[in-house]
Design a protein that fits this description.
There is one protein chain. The chain has about 900 residues and is of the alpha+beta class. Helix content is about 45%, strand content about 20%. The protein contains 29 helices and 31 strands. The chain has an eight-stranded mixed beta barrel with strand order 23-24-26-27-28-29-30-31, surrounded by six helices. α14 runs antiparallel to α15 and α18 packs across α19.
Length: about 900
């Protein structure tokens, strides 16, 4: 290939037959896989078709068996009724024939056959087998059944059941009929005769015909002795034939009385799928079958389709193999042309040298990068001549001999270098050795990438918004300063948290918040000097490192400057925004010499400042660390207590001020620490809310209290407190439903107490959840009304069932003017049809005043402190009113 790309590069490219062989082998494997898969699928579909027909037949015989069990029960009920009537009349053998061979009994029999007019009538035979009466005709013909098997069985007394079934040739009509016979017993147990009724095969086959099973299907009724009673489609010559020792007989005779099988039909000789089911109360079985050919009709269609699809796939694969191989052949012919085009359109400059260090390929990009002449740089010139030409044109300024010696010495292995031409660019050169002793050199202009990497390195260590050092660079520089502290001096680390920054973001938007942060960053930077520096740690947190501190007054002076700077209102996109800060300070080495320790102590001091009311500053004190450790230990113990079930639920009763009856109990969680004893909920509930444990704890309290309340009297309600954190989980309603369902407690007996804090953060979401709970049937009480950010609009937007008056108002109710707030709450509740409960009632005077003000209920130590479940249960039942004595 020439430098201008007009000549071709004489590079050997072979059409390797190995990949083609692999391609052909892969295609053959796919074709074989399709053939095998199709065969397997055909077999699976065949078995599935037969199994589907087996299930259909099983369902059919089951329904038919149940139908005929019921029908024959109704059928034999008439025979039983006649036999019972004869028995109850006290008919003796001497008068049996004379008494029943009357026209009156003929009429009686006719009335009995009304519901079964589609089958033969009722016939009565005496002890000699002579027909003495019939519902069909009167007078009766001379017919005897003395030779019938069922009659001889009854007469000999060997019958095990009062009803026998037998297929016989009718001596009146001449055709086949299934006779159902019931013996007649006299008052002393003597054999008087039989009552019979016959059903022709056509009667059964008429019903079988209504059951559509498709072409090739057959339904038959068989006696358990193998006699064929009826069959649809009807085959006259087979009726009455005996079929024994077949799989169907074994299935009928089995303990289950049913079975499904594939067999050769003894009736028509065809391969069939059959299912049999024995009637429960009669020695009869129903057999339904269909030919295997009919069962596989759909399968044959599927098979033809699968074979067509498989053949099509094989044809497609074969065609694709042919086209791919032909395409590869075409690609082989144009490969050199494409290679030429690719090399000359690379974004990198490329040089290919042979083992004698002569140019084989030089692309156009290389010439353009250095402004070289194509006439001077042709295939065959040496590497030294290339570099000499570059030196002559001004794109190379180094020592020619030294550079050539360095490159050629290292051509045996890959090497990379960055070269900077006189024009200030950065060029990356990569030399890649070849197996024949030559090498490929690529030249890439990485100027823009170098600039971008420099920017990335800057962003990795500096905050993108304020351009202050970020947390990573802050740690790096702080570590260096800690190692350079001079004896007699200290270094101060100030953690600065902007107060109420979130409210600025929420009210004015993030753009205003970003402008405020940039303004604060600039002012903090102007507060320090010398070796001091400012960093942004993230969000609204900043840090200052003050070095060479000789006394705390210098730190205090810096803090004063910081507060003065931060508190000046900032102009942020047309808004005057005021800000303040909480600052924590740790000194090194006084408060620690390790990086992590000094940062932790500064952080603790900052949180101490925030806890002190914000807008202030604090030096680190060892007691702060002790408080954090104690709180962390309490958190750990609380997690263990929740996991181990070491908490208890106590119940404090709520009493009606009008009737003094207990109306409900409030569930209160209690924790008895194994070492610290009883721990107040005011101490561990906030920890549970901050850590998220309140969700698990609240769910346990709810489930435990509901289960306990289910054992209380039905008119006593259960009140359970719900934390704002539980509302934010979004699953509170589901958990309430689960607790009610598990305990069996009526929803109307559960009262959930919420505080106004639930509604402050996101009142629309909270109100939606409250409406979900109300839809369940749960009562909702507003707890501690008036102590927080109370809003009467909450009472307008949601109809609470109860308002609870906080103990702070109850404590002052006896003071001058102290009852006015309680009276106002009672009036508001009455106007909104809500009840009121006063908490913390401890004196009789408070109770009397609350009753006079119209308060509904009270709760407090005057009546009872919170009690364990067992004590509370005893108190509830002991406090119930006793029924009045009856005079």
């Amino acid at each position: 290939m020439t430098a201008d790309g007009s000549a071709s590069f004489n590079l050997k490219v072979f059409f390797n037959s190995g990949p083609i062989r692999s391609l052909v082998a892969g295609g053959a494997f796919l074709i074989a896989a399709i053939a095998v898969g199709t065969t397997i699928m055909v077999g699976n579909f065949r078995e599935r078709a037969l199994s589907s027909n087996e299930r259909e037949l099983e369902n059919t015989v089951l329904l038919l068996a149940r139908h005929f069990d019921q029908q024959l029960d109704d059928f034999t009920a008439v025979l039983k009724d006649i036999a019972a009537q004869i028995h109850s009349d006290g008919v003796t053998p001497e008068i049996f024939g004379g008494q029943l061979a009357t026209l009156e009994w003929h009429e009686v029999l006719r009335t009995k056959v009304g519901a079964f007019s589609d089958v033969a009538g009722i016939k009565v035979f005496d002890a000699n087998g002579t027909l003495i009466n019939s519902s069909d005709v009167w007078p009766v013909p001379d017919v005897t059944i003395a030779d019938r098997a069922f009659f001889t069985t009854f007469k000999s007394g060997t019958a095990t059941t009062p009803i026998l079934v037998e297929l016989v040739r009718s001596r009146l009509a001449g055709g086949w009929a299934t006779v159902v016979a019931h013996h007649v017993i006299g008052p002393k147990g003597e054999f008087l005769g039989v009552v019979t009724r016959a059903i022709s095969p056509a009667a059964f086959e008429k019903y079988f015909a209504s059951v559509v099973l498709g072409e090739g299907a057959a339904i038959s009724m068989r006696h358990r002795d193998g006699t064929l009673l009826a069959r649809y489609p009807h085959i006259e010559r087979m009726i009455g034939s005996h079929i024994r020792a077949s799989p169907i007989d074994r299935a009928i005779s089995s303990e289950s009385g049913h079975g499904t099988m594939r067999l050769t039909s003894p009736i028509d000789g065809q391969q069939r799928v059959a299912s049999a089911y024995a009637l429960k109360n009669f020695p009869i079985a129903i057999v339904a079958s269909t030919t295997v050919a009919a069962a596989l009709a759909d399968w044959r269609e599927q098979t033809r389709f699968l074979i067509a699809v498989a053949g099509l796939l094989m044809l497609v694969i074969t065609t694709m193999l042919f086209l791919v191989i032909r395409k590869l052949s075409q690609q082989h012919r144009v490969e050199k042309q494409r290679l030429d085009t690719a090399i000359n359109n690379m974004t990198q400059g490329l040089l290919l040298f042979d083992s004698s260090q002569r140019v084989v390929v030089c692309n156009q990009r290389y010439l353009e990068m250095y402004g070289l002449s194509a006439e001077m740089l042709k295939p065959g010139c040496t590497f030294r001549e290339v570099i000499a030409h570059r030196k002559a044109t001004g794109s190379f300024e180094g020592d020619l001999d030294e550079y050539c010696s360095h490159v050629t010495r290292d051509i045996g292995h890959r090497n990379s270098m960055v070269f900077e031409p006189p024009d200030g660019r950065s060029i990356q050169i990569i030399n890649e050795p070849l197996a024949d002793g030559g090498w490929v050199a690529t030249h890439e202009d990485i100027t823009e990438r170098t600039i971008a990497e420099e920017q990335i390195r800057h962003l990795a260590h500096y905050d993108a918004l304020t351009d202050l050092p970020n947390r990573a660079l802050f740690h790096q520089r702080l570590r260096q300063e800690l190692a350079q502290i001079v004896p007699g001096e200290q270094m101060a680390v100030l953690y600065i948290d902007i107060d109420e920054f979130k409210s600025v973001n929420d009210s004015l938007g993030h753009m205003i918040g970003d402008e405020l942060l940039k303004s604060v960053a600039g002012r903090l930077g102007r507060c320090v000097g010398g070796t001091d520096f400012v960093a942004r740690l993230g969000g609204d947190e900043f840090a200052i490192v003050q070095t060479a501190v000789k006394n705390p007054a210098e730190v205090a002076d810096l803090v004063t400057r910081v507060f003065d700077a931060i508190r000046v209102p900032s102009e942020c996109l047309g808004h005057q925004v005021s800000s303040d800060a909480s600052i924590g300070i740790a000194l090194a080495p006084q408060h620690g010499t390790d990086l992590d320790q000094i940062l932790k102590n500064a952080d603790l001091a900052m949180y101490a400042a925030k806890s002190a009311g914000r807008r202030t500053w604090r030096f680190f004190e060892p007691a702060m660390d002790a408080q954090v450790k104690a709180r962390r230990m309490l958190e750990t113990d609380l997690r263990k207590a929740v996991a181990d079930g070491a908490l208890e639920v106590y119940y404090q009763p709520c009493v009606s001020l009008q009737s003094n009856r207990i109306t409900g109990c409030e569930a209160l969680v209690r924790w008895r620490h194994p070492e610290r004893g009883a721990i107040s909920p005011a101490e561990f509930i906030p920890i549970a809310e901050e850590t998220g444990l309140i969700n698990e704890l609240g769910e346990w309290v709810l489930a435990t209290a509901c289960a306990e309340a289910a054992s209380w009297p039905d008119d006593v309600r259960l009140a359970v407190n719900v934390s704002p954190v539980q509302f934010r989980s979004g699953t509170l309603a589901l958990k309430v439903v689960a607790a009610l369902a598990a305990s069996g407690l009526a929803p109307s007996r559960l009262e959930l107490e919420i505080t106004e804090a639930v509604l402050i953060r996101d009142d629309d979401v909270a109100l939606e959840i409250l409406h979900q709970l109300r839809a369940i049937g749960v009562r909702i009480a507003l707890d501690d009304f008036g102590t927080g950010y109370s809003s009467l609009s909450y009472l307008q937007r949601f109809p609470f069932d109860k308002i609870k008056i906080d103990r702070c108002f109850v404590n002052e109710i006896a003071e001058p003017g102290g009852s006015s707030i309680v009276q106002a709450v009672v009036n508001i509740a009455a106007a909104r049809h809500m009840t009121t409960t006063a908490e913390g009632v401890e004196t009789q005077r408070q109770q009397e005043l609350l009753r006079a003000l119209g308060c509904t209920e009270m709760q407090g130590y005057l009546f009872s402190p919170p009690r364990p479940a067992a004590e509370a249960r005893r108190m509830l039942y002991a406090h119930r009113p006793r029924p009045a004595a009856v005079a």
